[in-house]
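Its record is quoted verbatim for completeness.
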Amino acid sequence: MPGTRPAAEVATHRAFVCHGLSEDLSGTGMAEVETRAPGPGEVRVRMKAASVNFPDILICQGKYQLRLDPPFIPGMEMAGIVDTVGEGVTAFRPGDAVAGGTRHGAFAEYVSVAAEGLMAKPDNFSFSEAAAYPAAYLTAYVSLVRRARLEPGETLLVHGASGGVGMATVEVGKLLGARVIAATGSPGKADALRAHGADHVVLTTGGFREEVKALTDGRGADVIFDPVGGDVFDESVRCIAFDGRLLVVGFASGCIAEVKTNMPLIKGFSVVGVRAGEYGRRFPERGRENLQAIWAWAREGKTRPHIHAELPLEETRNALALLQQRDVVGKVIVR
Protein backbone atom coordinates (compact mmCIF):
# COMPACT_ATOMS: atom_id res chain seq x y z
CA MET A 1 0.00 0.00 0.00
CA PRO A 2 1.20 3.55 -0.63
CA GLY A 3 2.95 5.05 2.35
CA THR A 4 3.83 1.71 4.00
CA ARG A 5 7.42 0.64 4.62
CA PRO A 6 8.64 -2.86 3.76
CA ALA A 7 9.23 -5.13 6.74
CA ALA A 8 12.87 -5.37 7.78
CA GLU A 9 14.55 -8.50 6.48
CA VAL A 10 15.16 -11.03 9.25
CA ALA A 11 18.70 -12.40 9.38
CA THR A 12 18.91 -16.19 9.32
CA HIS A 13 21.52 -18.90 9.46
CA ARG A 14 21.74 -22.66 8.99
CA ALA A 15 21.19 -25.04 11.88
CA PHE A 16 20.58 -28.73 12.54
CA VAL A 17 17.07 -28.80 14.03
CA CYS A 18 15.06 -31.46 15.84
CA HIS A 19 11.50 -30.96 14.51
CA GLY A 20 10.14 -34.08 16.19
CA LEU A 21 11.35 -36.67 18.70
CA SER A 22 12.19 -39.98 17.03
CA GLU A 23 14.09 -43.15 17.85
CA ASP A 24 15.88 -43.17 14.48
CA LEU A 25 16.50 -39.39 14.43
CA SER A 26 14.27 -39.06 11.36
CA GLY A 27 12.76 -35.98 13.00
CA THR A 28 16.01 -34.06 12.56
CA GLY A 29 17.45 -32.11 9.64
CA MET A 30 18.96 -28.87 8.38
CA ALA A 31 16.88 -25.67 8.39
CA GLU A 32 17.17 -21.89 8.24
CA VAL A 33 16.59 -20.30 11.65
CA GLU A 34 16.49 -16.72 12.86
CA THR A 35 19.77 -15.22 14.02
CA ARG A 36 18.85 -13.61 17.31
CA ALA A 37 20.76 -10.94 19.17
CA PRO A 38 22.43 -12.03 22.41
CA GLY A 39 20.54 -11.20 25.59
CA PRO A 40 21.99 -9.61 28.72
CA GLY A 41 25.01 -11.57 29.89
CA GLU A 42 25.16 -13.55 26.64
CA VAL A 43 27.67 -13.78 23.81
CA ARG A 44 26.79 -14.66 20.22
CA VAL A 45 29.44 -16.95 18.74
CA ARG A 46 30.07 -17.77 15.09
CA MET A 47 30.55 -21.50 15.41
CA LYS A 48 33.72 -23.01 13.96
CA ALA A 49 33.37 -26.49 15.48
CA ALA A 50 30.84 -28.33 17.67
CA SER A 51 31.32 -31.61 19.49
CA VAL A 52 28.88 -34.52 19.27
CA ASN A 53 27.91 -36.18 22.54
CA PHE A 54 25.73 -39.18 23.36
CA PRO A 55 23.17 -36.97 25.19
CA ASP A 56 22.59 -35.18 21.85
CA ILE A 57 21.13 -38.46 20.57
CA LEU A 58 19.06 -39.04 23.70
CA ILE A 59 17.65 -35.51 23.70
CA CYS A 60 16.44 -35.95 20.09
CA GLN A 61 14.82 -39.24 21.13
CA GLY A 62 13.13 -37.70 24.18
CA LYS A 63 15.13 -39.96 26.53
CA TYR A 64 17.43 -37.44 28.22
CA GLN A 65 16.85 -35.87 31.65
CA LEU A 66 16.64 -32.49 29.93
CA ARG A 67 13.33 -32.58 28.00
CA LEU A 68 12.84 -30.04 25.21
CA ASP A 69 9.74 -29.49 23.10
CA PRO A 70 10.49 -29.46 19.34
CA PRO A 71 11.59 -27.59 17.42
CA PHE A 72 14.97 -27.12 19.05
CA ILE A 73 18.64 -27.16 18.06
CA PRO A 74 20.73 -29.84 19.82
CA GLY A 75 24.45 -29.57 20.54
CA MET A 76 26.03 -29.01 23.92
CA GLU A 77 29.53 -27.68 23.28
CA MET A 78 31.32 -25.67 20.64
CA ALA A 79 34.20 -23.37 19.78
CA GLY A 80 34.21 -20.29 17.57
CA ILE A 81 34.67 -16.56 17.21
CA VAL A 82 32.74 -13.98 19.24
CA ASP A 83 30.40 -12.14 16.88
CA THR A 84 28.44 -9.88 19.26
CA VAL A 85 28.29 -9.39 23.02
CA GLY A 86 25.15 -8.70 25.02
CA GLU A 87 24.52 -6.09 27.67
CA GLY A 88 26.81 -6.35 30.70
CA VAL A 89 29.43 -8.58 29.08
CA THR A 90 32.95 -7.26 29.61
CA ALA A 91 35.06 -10.44 29.55
CA PHE A 92 34.83 -10.91 25.77
CA ARG A 93 34.72 -8.77 22.68
CA PRO A 94 34.07 -9.42 18.98
CA GLY A 95 36.88 -11.39 17.38
CA ASP A 96 37.85 -13.38 20.50
CA ALA A 97 38.33 -17.12 20.01
CA VAL A 98 36.28 -18.94 22.65
CA ALA A 99 35.03 -22.38 23.61
CA GLY A 100 32.45 -23.64 26.03
CA GLY A 101 29.25 -25.47 26.74
CA THR A 102 25.56 -24.80 26.41
CA ARG A 103 22.57 -26.99 27.26
CA HIS A 104 21.55 -27.00 23.57
CA GLY A 105 21.93 -24.97 20.37
CA ALA A 106 25.53 -25.66 19.31
CA PHE A 107 24.74 -27.40 15.99
CA ALA A 108 24.31 -24.11 14.16
CA GLU A 109 26.33 -21.44 12.38
CA TYR A 110 25.62 -19.03 15.26
CA VAL A 111 24.76 -19.69 18.89
CA SER A 112 24.09 -17.32 21.80
CA VAL A 113 25.40 -18.62 25.10
CA ALA A 114 25.91 -17.33 28.64
CA ALA A 115 29.26 -15.55 28.82
CA GLU A 116 30.05 -17.25 32.15
CA GLY A 117 30.06 -20.62 30.36
CA LEU A 118 32.81 -19.58 27.94
CA MET A 119 36.58 -19.68 28.18
CA ALA A 120 39.23 -18.24 25.89
CA LYS A 121 40.34 -20.94 23.45
CA PRO A 122 43.82 -22.16 24.36
CA ASP A 123 46.36 -21.12 21.73
CA ASN A 124 47.70 -24.68 21.63
CA PHE A 125 44.27 -26.12 20.72
CA SER A 126 42.57 -26.18 17.34
CA PHE A 127 38.91 -25.16 17.23
CA SER A 128 37.97 -28.84 16.94
CA GLU A 129 40.02 -29.77 20.01
CA ALA A 130 38.55 -26.87 21.96
CA ALA A 131 35.01 -27.93 21.01
CA ALA A 132 35.75 -31.53 22.04
CA TYR A 133 37.06 -30.50 25.43
CA PRO A 134 34.54 -29.01 27.91
CA ALA A 135 31.88 -31.69 28.49
CA ALA A 136 34.23 -34.67 28.51
CA TYR A 137 36.87 -33.18 30.79
CA LEU A 138 34.36 -31.47 33.07
CA THR A 139 32.59 -34.82 33.52
CA ALA A 140 35.91 -36.50 34.27
CA TYR A 141 36.92 -33.77 36.73
CA VAL A 142 33.63 -33.69 38.65
CA SER A 143 33.55 -37.50 38.70
CA LEU A 144 37.08 -38.12 39.94
CA VAL A 145 37.87 -34.98 41.94
CA ARG A 146 34.57 -33.80 43.37
CA ARG A 147 32.54 -37.00 43.70
CA ALA A 148 35.02 -39.88 44.01
CA ARG A 149 37.88 -37.90 45.61
CA LEU A 150 40.32 -40.15 43.78
CA GLU A 151 43.66 -40.47 45.59
CA PRO A 152 47.12 -41.01 44.06
CA GLY A 153 47.93 -44.72 43.95
CA GLU A 154 44.29 -45.86 43.84
CA THR A 155 43.02 -48.07 41.03
CA LEU A 156 40.48 -46.57 38.64
CA LEU A 157 38.37 -48.72 36.30
CA VAL A 158 36.92 -46.74 33.38
CA HIS A 159 34.04 -48.22 31.40
CA GLY A 160 33.22 -46.90 27.94
CA ALA A 161 36.89 -45.93 27.88
CA SER A 162 37.18 -45.46 24.11
CA GLY A 163 34.49 -42.77 23.95
CA GLY A 164 35.21 -39.07 24.32
CA VAL A 165 34.28 -38.94 28.01
CA GLY A 166 35.96 -42.27 28.71
CA MET A 167 39.26 -41.24 27.15
CA ALA A 168 39.15 -37.96 29.07
CA THR A 169 38.60 -39.91 32.30
CA VAL A 170 41.55 -42.20 31.54
CA GLU A 171 43.71 -39.13 30.96
CA VAL A 172 42.51 -37.27 34.08
CA GLY A 173 42.87 -40.41 36.20
CA LYS A 174 46.53 -40.71 35.21
CA LEU A 175 47.04 -36.98 35.81
CA LEU A 176 45.70 -37.47 39.35
CA GLY A 177 48.16 -40.31 40.01
CA ALA A 178 45.85 -43.31 39.71
CA ARG A 179 46.54 -46.69 38.20
CA VAL A 180 44.03 -46.85 35.33
CA ILE A 181 42.28 -49.91 33.91
CA ALA A 182 40.41 -49.07 30.71
CA ALA A 183 37.44 -51.27 29.78
CA THR A 184 36.16 -51.59 26.23
CA GLY A 185 34.06 -53.99 24.19
CA SER A 186 36.40 -53.85 21.19
CA PRO A 187 39.91 -55.37 21.10
CA GLY A 188 40.75 -53.05 18.20
CA LYS A 189 40.61 -50.04 20.54
CA ALA A 190 43.14 -51.33 23.06
CA ASP A 191 46.22 -49.75 21.47
CA ALA A 192 44.58 -46.30 21.34
CA LEU A 193 43.67 -46.55 25.02
CA ARG A 194 47.20 -47.53 26.02
CA ALA A 195 48.55 -44.65 23.96
CA HIS A 196 46.19 -42.33 25.84
CA GLY A 197 47.59 -43.43 29.20
CA ALA A 198 45.78 -46.59 30.30
CA ASP A 199 47.97 -48.93 32.35
CA HIS A 200 45.82 -51.95 31.47
CA VAL A 201 42.98 -52.68 29.05
CA VAL A 202 40.24 -55.25 29.76
CA LEU A 203 37.49 -56.44 27.43
CA THR A 204 33.93 -56.31 28.72
CA THR A 205 32.75 -58.99 26.29
CA GLY A 206 32.73 -62.30 28.15
CA GLY A 207 33.04 -60.61 31.52
CA PHE A 208 35.71 -58.48 33.18
CA ARG A 209 35.31 -59.19 36.90
CA GLU A 210 38.02 -61.83 37.22
CA GLU A 211 40.58 -59.89 35.19
CA VAL A 212 40.02 -56.73 37.28
CA LYS A 213 40.37 -58.78 40.47
CA ALA A 214 43.57 -60.36 39.16
CA LEU A 215 45.05 -56.96 38.24
CA THR A 216 44.33 -55.68 41.76
CA ASP A 217 45.53 -58.75 43.73
CA GLY A 218 41.94 -59.61 44.57
CA ARG A 219 41.02 -56.20 46.04
CA GLY A 220 39.02 -54.82 43.16
CA ALA A 221 39.02 -51.27 41.81
CA ASP A 222 38.86 -48.37 44.26
CA VAL A 223 36.86 -46.18 41.86
CA ILE A 224 34.71 -47.37 38.95
CA PHE A 225 33.49 -44.89 36.33
CA ASP A 226 30.34 -46.26 34.68
CA PRO A 227 28.59 -44.38 31.85
CA VAL A 228 27.16 -47.66 30.50
CA GLY A 229 24.83 -49.15 33.13
CA GLY A 230 23.01 -52.46 32.75
CA ASP A 231 25.12 -55.60 32.96
CA VAL A 232 28.31 -53.51 33.21
CA PHE A 233 27.05 -51.95 36.44
CA ASP A 234 26.00 -55.35 37.81
CA GLU A 235 29.44 -56.86 37.21
CA SER A 236 31.18 -53.74 38.53
CA VAL A 237 29.49 -54.33 41.89
CA ARG A 238 31.36 -57.62 41.99
CA CYS A 239 34.84 -56.21 41.38
CA ILE A 240 34.85 -53.04 43.48
CA ALA A 241 37.14 -52.70 46.47
CA PHE A 242 36.02 -52.21 50.06
CA ASP A 243 35.48 -48.46 50.60
CA GLY A 244 35.22 -48.12 46.80
CA ARG A 245 33.14 -45.57 44.90
CA LEU A 246 30.99 -46.71 41.98
CA LEU A 247 30.21 -43.66 39.85
CA VAL A 248 26.88 -43.68 37.98
CA VAL A 249 27.52 -41.38 35.01
CA GLY A 250 24.99 -42.55 32.42
CA PHE A 251 23.14 -45.42 30.78
CA ALA A 252 24.61 -45.78 27.28
CA SER A 253 23.47 -49.42 27.26
CA GLY A 254 19.86 -48.21 27.49
CA CYS A 255 19.35 -50.26 30.66
CA ILE A 256 19.12 -48.75 34.14
CA ALA A 257 20.59 -51.20 36.64
CA GLU A 258 19.47 -51.85 40.20
CA VAL A 259 21.54 -52.77 43.24
CA LYS A 260 20.30 -54.52 46.35
CA THR A 261 21.34 -52.53 49.40
CA ASN A 262 22.97 -55.52 51.10
CA MET A 263 25.77 -55.32 48.51
CA PRO A 264 26.99 -51.79 49.42
CA LEU A 265 26.60 -52.75 53.08
CA ILE A 266 28.56 -56.00 52.95
CA LYS A 267 31.22 -54.73 50.53
CA GLY A 268 31.43 -51.28 52.11
CA PHE A 269 31.23 -49.30 48.86
CA SER A 270 29.29 -46.21 47.79
CA VAL A 271 27.12 -45.70 44.72
CA VAL A 272 27.66 -42.07 43.67
CA GLY A 273 25.65 -40.18 41.07
CA VAL A 274 27.44 -37.75 38.72
CA ARG A 275 25.84 -34.84 36.85
CA ALA A 276 28.73 -32.56 36.02
CA GLY A 277 26.72 -29.67 34.59
CA GLU A 278 24.12 -29.74 37.34
CA TYR A 279 26.91 -29.83 39.94
CA GLY A 280 28.14 -26.47 38.66
CA ARG A 281 24.61 -25.03 38.58
CA ARG A 282 23.96 -26.10 42.19
CA PHE A 283 27.39 -24.96 43.41
CA PRO A 284 28.34 -21.98 41.18
CA GLU A 285 31.63 -21.18 42.88
CA ARG A 286 32.80 -24.79 42.64
CA GLY A 287 31.52 -24.86 39.08
CA ARG A 288 33.80 -21.95 38.16
CA GLU A 289 36.70 -23.66 39.93
CA ASN A 290 36.03 -26.85 37.94
CA LEU A 291 36.15 -25.00 34.61
CA GLN A 292 39.27 -23.06 35.58
CA ALA A 293 41.01 -26.30 36.57
CA ILE A 294 40.34 -28.21 33.35
CA TRP A 295 41.17 -25.25 31.07
CA ALA A 296 44.41 -24.68 33.02
CA TRP A 297 45.38 -28.29 32.22
CA ALA A 298 44.61 -27.63 28.56
CA ARG A 299 46.72 -24.47 28.39
CA GLU A 300 49.58 -26.24 30.16
CA GLY A 301 49.50 -29.10 27.63
CA LYS A 302 48.60 -31.70 30.27
CA THR A 303 45.39 -32.82 28.55
CA ARG A 304 44.31 -33.08 24.91
CA PRO A 305 41.17 -34.67 23.44
CA HIS A 306 41.41 -37.31 20.74
CA ILE A 307 39.47 -36.46 17.55
CA HIS A 308 38.05 -39.46 15.70
CA ALA A 309 36.34 -37.67 12.78
CA GLU A 310 35.25 -34.24 11.54
CA LEU A 311 32.17 -33.73 9.38
CA PRO A 312 30.49 -30.62 7.93
CA LEU A 313 27.44 -29.19 9.72
CA GLU A 314 25.05 -30.52 7.08
CA GLU A 315 26.19 -34.07 7.94
CA THR A 316 25.34 -33.78 11.65
CA ARG A 317 22.93 -36.71 11.49
CA ASN A 318 25.76 -38.87 10.11
CA ALA A 319 27.96 -37.66 12.96
CA LEU A 320 25.32 -38.77 15.46
CA ALA A 321 25.05 -42.12 13.66
CA LEU A 322 28.79 -42.67 14.15
CA LEU A 323 28.25 -42.50 17.90
CA GLN A 324 25.29 -44.87 17.72
CA GLN A 325 27.43 -47.44 15.90
CA ARG A 326 29.89 -47.35 18.83
CA ASP A 327 32.92 -47.50 16.55
CA VAL A 328 34.23 -44.10 17.63
CA VAL A 329 37.54 -43.70 19.47
CA GLY A 330 37.46 -40.26 21.10
CA LYS A 331 35.27 -37.43 19.79
CA VAL A 332 33.32 -36.64 16.62
CA ILE A 333 33.19 -33.00 15.49
CA VAL A 334 30.90 -31.10 13.14
CA ARG A 335 32.42 -28.04 11.43
Notes: The chain has eleven helices and 15 strands. The domain at 136-277 is CATH 3.40.50.720 (Rossmann fold).
